[in-house]
Each structure stands twice: as C-alpha cells, then as structure tokens.
Design goal:
Blueprint lengths: L1 H8 L3 H25 L4 E2 L2 E2 L1 H5 L1 H19 L7 H25 L5 H26 L8 H21 L2 H6 L6 H8 L3
Antiparallel strand pairs: 1-2
Helix pairs in contact: 1-6, 2-4, 2-6, 5-6, 6-7
Keywords: Magnesium, Metal-binding, Transferase
Pfam families: polyprenyl_synt
Pathway: Secondary metabolite biosynthesis
Length: 190
C-alpha cells in the first residue's frame, strides 16, 4: 500500500523506508497485544507469542516496539510526525477498546458503530502511513489520500472478517469477536 500511495506522493526513499519501518513495528506490536486481548492460540498458523514467552514478556515487547517506532519516527524531517503518530495510536486504542467492550459486555454495535471502530482500529495504520507520507512528501498533497486509506482499511477488515467466518482454523484458534457480517445479521430487520 505504501508503494502505491508513493506513486502520487513521491516521498524521498530514506523517509519512505523510515515510514515503512515505523508502520511495520506498530503493526507487529498491535498484533502481539491483540492476540493477548483475544486469548488467541494461533497467529498465521503458528503459536502466539504470549503462549511461548508469557503474557508479561509479550506485553513488554509490544510496548517496547511502540516506543521504538516513535523513536524512529523522530528521524523524519516533518515536525508533525510525532503528533500524527500519537493521534493515530490513540485512535487505534480507542477502536480496540470499543471492540473489547462489545465483546466482553455482549453488546452488538450498530453497523455505524462497527464501521467507526474499524476506522479507528484497522484503518488507523493505513491512515497513519498515508499521513506520514503526506508530511514527508515534497509535492502538493492530493486531498483524497486519507479518505482512500480509510476505505482501504474498511475493505481490509471486512474482507478479513468474511474470510475468518469461513475459516475452520480461525474459529478453532480465536475467541469470538463482533464482525461486520455478524453485526449486520443481528441488527438486520429482515
């Protein structure tokens, strides 16, 4: 995705590599935490980190990666990079909090609430990458990049939800979670 947006934004290669590294670290950290919060057994067919190294070490490693990503982002030229990262990480954690609340309280969100959560949670890293790229771009930034990143985040999550509902491996290795198809089925009047 980063390379596709870079066709428009033409971010210098050194900045582009930093952005890719930052997004990779944040993504890995968020998956480590997500697996703990969901009591997952497998991630991509392999045992999850917290079942190998324990919950405390996994949480510590994930937190370490968040701060390493923030540290690496400080090498970007834009003075807005840290502010952008902090804002999007707060959004990501708000979205995760919504997801956890609905799961743990057995509340089914409306479709609008679900899409808002996905926009914060899954869409956050898509949006973060694009915003950092825009901040580092020497070009006049096209207005549609962030909305497009938001749509790609929604598409990615809904596709992932659908695939997970059709995967026996997923249902055997993950705790129940609200997905767009499930929310739509529960709240549909048909």
């Amino acid at each position: 995705m980063i390379n596709a947006f870079n066709a428009w934004l033409e971010v210098p290669s050194d900045s582009l590599q930093v952005i890719a590294d930052v997004i990779g670290m944040l993504h890995t950290a968020s998956l480590l935490v997500d697996d703990v919060e969901d009591s997952s057994l497998l991630r991509r067919g392999f045992p999850v980190a917290h079942n190998i190294f324990g919950v405390p070490q996994t949480i510590n490693s994930a937190n370490y990666m968040y701060f390493r990503a923030l540290e690496k982002a400080q090498t970007l030229k834009s003075p807005d990079a840290t502010r952008i990262i902090v804002y999007e990480l707060l959004q990501l954690h708000r979205g995760q909090g919504m997801d956890l609340y609905w799961r743990d309280s057995l509340v089914c969100p409306t479709e609008r609430e679900y899409l808002d959560m996905v926009g914060k949670k899954t869409g956050g890293l898509f949006r973060l990458a694009v915003k950092l790229m825009q901040a580092e771009s020497p070009k006049t930034v096209p207005q549609g990049c962030v909305p497009l990143a938001d749509k790609l985040g929604l598409l990615f999550q809904i596709r992932d939800d659908y695939q997970n509902l059709n995967s026996e491996e997923y249902s055997d290795s993950k705790a129940f979670g609200m997905t767009q198809p499930i929310c739509n089925s529960i709240t549909s009047s048909d």
